[in-house]
Amino acid sequence: MRLPDEPDIPAQINIVPMIDVIFAILTFFIMSTLFLTRSEGLPVNLPKAGSAQQQKSSAPITVTVDAEGKISVNRKAVDIEVLGEQVRTFMGNNPEALVVINADERVTHGKVVAVMDRLRQVKGAKLAIATQKP
User: Fold this and answer.
1) Least CB-packed of 1, 89, 114, 132 within 10 Å?
2) Which pLDDT score is estimated for 28?
3) What is the value of pTM for the model shown?
Protein backbone atom coordinates (compact mmCIF):
# COMPACT_ATOMS: atom_id res chain seq x y z
CA MET A 1 0.00 0.00 0.00
CA ARG A 2 1.38 3.40 -0.99
CA LEU A 3 1.10 6.59 0.86
CA PRO A 4 -0.23 9.55 -1.12
CA ASP A 5 2.88 11.70 -0.61
CA GLU A 6 5.34 9.01 -1.78
CA PRO A 7 6.92 9.95 -5.17
CA ASP A 8 6.65 7.60 -8.14
CA ILE A 9 9.95 5.82 -8.84
CA PRO A 10 10.41 5.50 -12.59
CA ALA A 11 11.15 2.04 -13.91
CA GLN A 12 14.84 1.59 -14.74
CA ILE A 13 16.69 -0.97 -16.76
CA ASN A 14 20.21 -1.58 -15.58
CA ILE A 15 22.23 -2.18 -18.77
CA VAL A 16 25.67 -2.59 -17.16
CA PRO A 17 25.34 -6.40 -16.77
CA MET A 18 24.06 -6.64 -20.34
CA ILE A 19 27.08 -4.70 -21.62
CA ASP A 20 29.38 -7.03 -19.67
CA VAL A 21 27.75 -10.05 -21.29
CA ILE A 22 28.01 -8.49 -24.77
CA PHE A 23 31.71 -7.75 -24.27
CA ALA A 24 32.32 -11.29 -23.02
CA ILE A 25 30.63 -12.74 -26.12
CA LEU A 26 32.54 -10.34 -28.37
CA THR A 27 35.82 -11.36 -26.73
CA PHE A 28 34.96 -15.03 -27.24
CA PHE A 29 34.26 -14.52 -30.95
CA ILE A 30 37.42 -12.49 -31.48
CA MET A 31 39.59 -15.09 -29.76
CA SER A 32 37.92 -17.99 -31.58
CA THR A 33 38.38 -16.41 -35.01
CA LEU A 34 42.09 -16.02 -34.32
CA PHE A 35 42.35 -19.79 -34.12
CA LEU A 36 40.37 -20.33 -37.35
CA THR A 37 43.17 -19.11 -39.58
CA ARG A 38 45.01 -22.10 -40.93
CA SER A 39 48.72 -21.77 -41.19
CA GLU A 40 50.04 -24.65 -43.22
CA GLY A 41 53.73 -23.90 -43.04
CA LEU A 42 56.18 -22.49 -40.59
CA PRO A 43 56.34 -18.72 -40.19
CA VAL A 44 58.72 -17.19 -42.74
CA ASN A 45 59.12 -13.75 -44.31
CA LEU A 46 57.69 -14.29 -47.76
CA PRO A 47 58.91 -12.20 -50.67
CA LYS A 48 56.54 -9.64 -52.14
CA ALA A 49 55.05 -10.01 -55.63
CA GLY A 50 52.50 -7.74 -57.24
CA SER A 51 51.31 -10.40 -59.70
CA ALA A 52 50.54 -13.01 -57.03
CA GLN A 53 47.43 -15.13 -57.62
CA GLN A 54 45.70 -17.41 -55.18
CA GLN A 55 45.75 -21.12 -56.04
CA LYS A 56 42.78 -23.24 -55.08
CA SER A 57 43.38 -26.65 -53.61
CA SER A 58 41.56 -28.68 -50.99
CA ALA A 59 44.65 -29.77 -49.06
CA PRO A 60 47.92 -28.35 -50.36
CA ILE A 61 51.23 -29.82 -49.25
CA THR A 62 53.42 -27.09 -47.80
CA VAL A 63 57.20 -27.20 -48.13
CA THR A 64 58.87 -24.54 -46.01
CA VAL A 65 62.46 -23.31 -46.34
CA ASP A 66 63.28 -21.05 -43.39
CA ALA A 67 65.93 -18.33 -43.17
CA GLU A 68 68.60 -20.83 -42.08
CA GLY A 69 67.85 -23.13 -45.04
CA LYS A 70 66.09 -25.84 -43.00
CA ILE A 71 63.39 -27.68 -44.93
CA SER A 72 60.10 -28.95 -43.55
CA VAL A 73 57.07 -30.61 -45.12
CA ASN A 74 53.77 -29.74 -43.43
CA ARG A 75 55.70 -28.53 -40.35
CA LYS A 76 57.83 -31.69 -40.09
CA ALA A 77 61.56 -31.20 -40.59
CA VAL A 78 63.05 -33.27 -43.42
CA ASP A 79 66.37 -33.56 -45.20
CA ILE A 80 66.56 -32.59 -48.88
CA GLU A 81 67.50 -36.17 -49.85
CA VAL A 82 64.15 -37.53 -48.59
CA LEU A 83 62.03 -34.54 -49.62
CA GLY A 84 60.54 -36.30 -52.66
CA GLU A 85 59.61 -39.39 -50.65
CA GLN A 86 57.90 -37.28 -47.96
CA VAL A 87 55.87 -35.38 -50.55
CA ARG A 88 54.85 -38.66 -52.22
CA THR A 89 53.73 -39.93 -48.81
CA PHE A 90 51.59 -36.83 -48.23
CA MET A 91 50.15 -37.05 -51.75
CA GLY A 92 48.79 -40.53 -51.13
CA ASN A 93 46.36 -41.48 -53.90
CA ASN A 94 45.94 -37.90 -55.14
CA PRO A 95 47.24 -37.90 -58.76
CA GLU A 96 47.73 -34.12 -58.84
CA ALA A 97 48.54 -32.41 -55.56
CA LEU A 98 49.42 -28.76 -55.12
CA VAL A 99 52.78 -28.33 -53.41
CA VAL A 100 53.25 -24.80 -52.04
CA ILE A 101 56.82 -23.66 -51.42
CA ASN A 102 57.13 -21.16 -48.54
CA ALA A 103 60.67 -19.87 -48.87
CA ASP A 104 61.97 -17.09 -46.64
CA GLU A 105 63.12 -14.07 -48.62
CA ARG A 106 66.63 -14.39 -47.14
CA VAL A 107 67.19 -17.96 -48.37
CA THR A 108 69.69 -18.26 -51.17
CA HIS A 109 68.37 -18.78 -54.67
CA GLY A 110 70.34 -22.02 -54.99
CA LYS A 111 68.59 -23.59 -52.00
CA VAL A 112 65.13 -22.79 -53.39
CA VAL A 113 66.09 -24.12 -56.83
CA ALA A 114 67.40 -27.34 -55.23
CA VAL A 115 64.09 -27.81 -53.40
CA MET A 116 62.13 -27.10 -56.60
CA ASP A 117 64.29 -29.57 -58.52
CA ARG A 118 63.55 -32.32 -55.98
CA LEU A 119 59.83 -31.52 -56.07
CA ARG A 120 59.66 -31.54 -59.87
CA GLN A 121 60.85 -35.14 -59.79
CA VAL A 122 57.67 -36.11 -57.93
CA LYS A 123 55.12 -37.21 -60.52
CA GLY A 124 51.84 -35.27 -60.30
CA ALA A 125 53.12 -32.54 -57.99
CA LYS A 126 52.03 -29.09 -59.12
CA LEU A 127 54.37 -26.44 -57.72
CA ALA A 128 53.38 -23.02 -56.42
CA ILE A 129 55.56 -20.44 -54.66
CA ALA A 130 53.98 -18.53 -51.77
CA THR A 131 54.37 -14.75 -51.81
CA GLN A 132 52.68 -11.84 -50.17
CA LYS A 133 51.19 -8.81 -51.87
CA PRO A 134 53.10 -5.56 -51.39
Assistant:
1) 1
2) 93
3) 0.60
